[in-house]
Amino acid sequence: MSPRNPRNEARPGGADERPVSLWERVARPAPTARVALTPERIAVTAVAVADAEGLDAITMRRLAAELGVAPMAAYRYVSGKGELLDLMVDLVHGELELPEVELGWREALRLLALRNRELLLAHPWLVRIAGGEGHWR
Predict the structure, then answer these.
(1) How far is Cα 44 from Cα 46, in angstroms, rounded to an integer?
(2) What is the tally of structural domains in the chain?
(3) 34 occurs within a structural domain
(4) Which helix (H) or strand (E) holds 130?
(5) Do the domain assignments include residue 69?
(6) Is residue 49 assigned to a domain?
(7) Mind listing the pLDDT tens digit of every residue in the chain (137 residues)?
(8) Phi and psi angles of residue 87, each rounded to the nearest 5 degrees, phi first
(9) Cα Dmax for the chain
(10) What predicted TM-score, i.e. pTM, was given to this entire model?
């Protein structure tokens, strides 16, 4: 037995179409697919915003808008801005290429310092976080 439509609501688009019950409308899939979030996707998006506009541009609401999700969706992955910043720092430090083992300690440290400088120039907001300014815990 199919559910009845007490209001006799018809589908949009024509009067000659059969009425659609509430149960049929509820059972339909959402019109757009939900965006799958991951900690990496969250971090990549936050880093892109911080690189373009600075650390102050990072808010959970802004992040949600950039990701195309509801404002509270990111909280399933990070508890707040402090954890978000941790993800961002981990992501960009993953870009840092370590010196080869065969190098002497002085050359290895020199190369590491140069690569750290390149990283900080690419992500200037890192300086604020390293100085303790960025953590809002």
Answers:
(1) 6
(2) 1
(3) no
(4) helix 125-130
(5) yes
(6) yes
(7) 445 544 544 445 555 577 877 777 777 766 666 668 999 999 999 999 999 999 999 999 999 999 999 989 999 999 999 999 999 999 999 999 988 888 889 999 999 999 999 999 999 999 998 766 555 44
(8) -60, -40
(9) 83
(10) 0.69
